[in-house]
Amino acid sequence: MDTPVGKIRCSMGKGDQGVVFMRKRSAWTAAEDDILKNYFKIHGAHQWKEVEKMTGLKRSGKSCWLRWKDHLQPGLNKAKLSEEEKELINRLQAQYSNKWSTIASQV
């Protein structure tokens, strides 16, 4: 099957028996997000290496962990910062330079 160059991006991995399989390297879909949310509702947010086997997602455990941590985790606040918060961050950065863990603990 002919596909345009750059249209499909995949990474290679090896399964338990040394079988080579393809993993997706594209944007996450809403269906994949739902599968991941349902998995963690049942099993909890651990055993990242098992996610790929248990869900059938063609994503690595690390990719699933990053998606969960950065986008799907309950209670994650992705709202825009208020002007007061921006001023506080700027003041703390002037005080602590680029020590972001220290700055984040005070915001």
TrEMBL record:
InterPro entries noted in UniProt: Homeodomain-like_sf (IPR009057), Myb_dom (IPR017930), SANT/Myb (IPR001005)
Gene: GAM1
Pfam families: Myb_DNA-binding
Subcellular location: Nucleus
Domain spans labelled Myb-like: 24-72
Residue stretches making up the HTH myb-type domain: 23-76
Main localization, broad class: nucleus
Protein name: Transcription factor GAMYB
Single GO MF descriptor: DNA binding
Alphabetized PROSITE patterns for the sequence: HTH_MYB, MYB_LIKE
Source organism (scientific name): Acorus calamus
Entry-linked PANTHER family: TRANSCRIPTION FACTOR MYB33-RELATED, TRANSCRIPTION FACTOR MYB65
One term under GO cellular component: nucleus
The keyword Glycoprotein appears for this protein: no
Keywords: DNA-binding, Nucleus, Repeat, Transcription, Transcription regulation
